[in-house]
Amino acid sequence: MHLAAFLNAGPQGTVGWRHPDAGDGFLDAEHYVQIARILEDACFDLAFVPDSLAVPRSLGDTFDPAVRWGTGTPRLDPLPVITIMAAATRHLGLAATVSTGYHEPYNLARTFATLDHLTGGRAGWNVVTSFQDAEAQNFGQDALPDRTARYDRAEEFLEVTARLWDSWSDDVLIRDKGSGTFGRPEEVSAIDHDGAHFRVRGPLGVPRPPQGYPVVIQAGASPSGRDFAARWADVIFCSHESLESAVDFARDIRARVAARGRDPEQVRILPAATTVVGSDARDARRRHGEFVDLVAPEAGLSRMAYHVNVDLTEYDLDGPLPELEEVGVDGHYREILEFARREELTIREIGKWYGARTEGNMVGSPTDIADTMERWLEAGAADGFMIQATHVPAAFGDFAGEVVPELRRRGLIRSDYSGTTLRDHLGLRRPEPGEWRQRAGSQRSKELS
Amino acid sequence: MHLAAFLNAGPQGTVGWRHPDAGDGFLDAEHYVQIARILEDACFDLAFVPDSLAVPRSLGDTFDPAVRWGTGTPRLDPLPVITIMAAATRHLGLAATVSTGYHEPYNLARTFATLDHLTGGRAGWNVVTSFQDAEAQNFGQDALPDRTARYDRAEEFLEVTARLWDSWSDDVLIRDKGSGTFGRPEEVSAIDHDGAHFRVRGPLGVPRPPQGYPVVIQAGASPSGRDFAARWADVIFCSHESLESAVDFARDIRARVAARGRDPEQVRILPAATTVVGSDARDARRRHGEFVDLVAPEAGLSRMAYHVNVDLTEYDLDGPLPELEEVGVDGHYREILEFARREELTIREIGKWYGARTEGNMVGSPTDIADTMERWLEAGAADGFMIQATHVPAAFGDFAGEVVPELRRRGLIRSDYSGTTLRDHLGLRRPEPGEWRQRAGSQRSKELS
User: Which residues form the Luciferase-like domain (chains A, B) (predicted)?
Assistant: First the structure.
């Protein structure tokens, strides 16, 4: 069972910064070093930093609520953050989110190759295509391109980066001081990529990364996201409301991976788990209740407005939710409305509820949480979990101190690192040079068929 | 007097990797950590990492010589490299080169703001516009845009990044856990930039950097480069063949700075100094001779081909240099040819000489080198030096161990850090919010006049 930690390079969630035990050092290196050490002491496979390329805007197209409540801002650049964490550790894998929409493949390939060398093979890249218009507007666009266009660019982006990582064979460097011969030019190749989105001649200015390709992480839940993940991802990060939907998702992903000629056992599926640990179930519920109490209803409503484009602060906060047509995506507001009616919640109460929502809640004693995790593993829903913290560093400390010993006792997780690279930790083999052909090639065949 | 260190994130110069005392760890974090500690122990103001976004190509448009001789490749991404160095130090300033030609201002502004926060105000950005066609070809272009176009983009790039750094006032964050108020939205502003090269709405997703703006470094020697530096640069890095040309350059730069309404005392001019230290002048010359002996003539000719577009390997290496018309830029081959004739050097000998060339050579005893530096300071040619090493880490160790004590004895450099930020070390004040207006504004007035 694999453990990853989900860590914002800024305040956590809607309200994590406000927790009495939350550190406020998210602009300081020491904060990230402290968390990295907790995770490495607990033998986590990796820490994972999400990202967003804008201060979130919600209704009225304003960033005021995000700044006022600290929801989604600030966000430091994840790359320097994981580099600082790497410098403080020896084994922990480190993954940063970088958008294919607003970067150049040459730069991105070089950055991750550099990081993989400097960390001895511990780098991971979480590939996203961005999802806010506010992000697009920081890069010369009026609005985000549609999903098809974004994934089309992402596919080509991955092909280019993989080819650049392969542009030096594993045997270029000689460094023979005697003869003065530094490297073998015949083991370095231009890539001469000329595609719909990118023209890149290559080669990369950095030797092939220790891991061949850095570990590729992906979290797309849509059909195009799943296809993309099936082609390129080593680790798939997801979130599910139930064990059943998690099992269905895992089955679907593994089928898509196999259909592309890749080994389904070489993909790790990590559902989100926000753990709140107590001495027993009652104590854990109390702790969770204290966390929920921190949520200002307006902060939750602002987060909801950001997600579903509904501004309920215009209504009486102590009244019921209004019937609204055509808002949000995928019927998300409809679900919220039905939930509010069923539970007889006011707008204020829904704001509190929404702001306190975390992904894959596991509230209980260490035994309860280990039981749940074990059940998900046995059902084939997960290869491990992406642990999310209500507040940091303390909630990671709780998990490491309370749940990790129980998982070790059951023999579910390691008590020491056996390998050196992130691929080693995850049990993933090192990609062969040229493996991009198989991946990108299967996409091309599909388009031709 | 200010000390900066010039450090490739790869092999040094044409032949530095081949020196018997050179470390070969340029892909490893430990190599950079070791150098960072040498520099911090010697109280350097900063370390500076140059960059190039391609494997250099020379005649025949091939990267073969660069790989075979290790000239200009590999080049790690400087940003993770300086982040690793920052994590190992507490005072040393860290500057990375990033091109305005092939990055996005939002990303760049956020990366440096992040680094400035994580290092407590020790970040510097060396602004370049790139200079090789091989770089352009990794980013969808056939060839490098001309100098005017490159500087035009760079001007707008700097305006956008400065405005993004100012998009949060210094007083946004409240973080009042009691009331749940995180920040003051009225202290955060969109920038709504709409220019010839960039449309960026803002605000940045990161608070104003500790230094206001990270330290801006620039090395352009052309008139447009000098104007750019006069508007934006805090530190100017240059290279001179003689004290006279250095004095002229410094006088010209300070006049340009003053003409733009900036204080000429708030710009630091750091000429390159490649120091080879011996117990006396004769010992130093012997050491320099040993270094020169390492240069394979073909490696020097390949470097020359890269710089002046002349491939002399097609001729008899033991014959004289051919008379060639219209090669290289600014008559550079003509100078080389005249030098070869005057000194009666063969092509092979010129290859050796060219490959061993380093910038601002200072070969001598610690007293000799300190004398030269002092003379340059007194003549107004320099505010300090950009120390280059023939090989690393050893040559930095030689400088730190032999020359630094002599400079300290003379009271020319500090023996401890008094401030905390890179601006403190350099004696530069923190820019006020809105200072971009003065800088970019003067450019606009100039265009209108």
Answer: 27-381
Same domain, A84 and A111: yes
Nearest neighbour of A69 by CB, restricted to B83, B182, B188:
B182
| Record: contact A118-B28, CB cut-off 8 A | yes
Chain A residue numbers touching B175 (CB-CB < 8 A): 17, 24, 70
Report helix, strand or coil for A371: helix
What is the count of structural domains for chain A? 2
The DSSP-derived string for B249-274 is: HHHHHHHHHHHTT--GGG-EEEEEEE
Which among B27, B140, B198 has CB closest to A198?
B140
Binding residues of A for FMN, as ranges, are: 51, 97, 151, 222
Cβ partners under 8 Å of residue A172, min gap 6: A183, A184, A187, A188, A207, A208, B67
Q: Which of B35, B77, B94, B163 to mutate to test the interface with A (most CBs of A within 10 A)?
A: B77
Q: Find, among A312, A368, A373, A314, the residue nearest to A345 by Cα.
A: A312
Domain limit, last residue, from A322, A356, A390 = A356
Q: Last residue of some domain: A331, A356, A381?
A: A356
Q: Do B77 and A110 touch (CB under 8 A)?
A: yes
CA-based nearest residue in chain B for residue A297 = B180
Cα distance between residue B378 and residue B381, in whole Å: 8
Q: What is this model's ipTM?
A: 0.96
The answer to whether B445 is a known ligand-binding residue is no
Asked if B254 and B125 sit in the same domain, the reply is yes
A134: number of Cβ within 10 Å: 25
Question: Quick check: A203 and B114 CB within 8 A?
Answer: no
CATH code: domain of residue B439: 3.20.20.30
**Nearest chain A Cα to B160, which residue?**
A138
Q: Which domain holds residue B94?
A: 2-278+361-448
Instruction: Give rounded-to-5 percent helix, strand, coil for chain A.
Output: 45, 15, 40
- The CA dihedral of A181, A182, A185, A190, to the nearest 10 degrees, is -160
Residue corresponding to tokens 């930093």: A49
A79 with B76: Cβ contact below 8 A: no
- From the CA of B171, how many Å to the nearest CA of chain A? 12
From chain A, pick out residues whose CB is under 8 angstroms from the CB of B134. 201
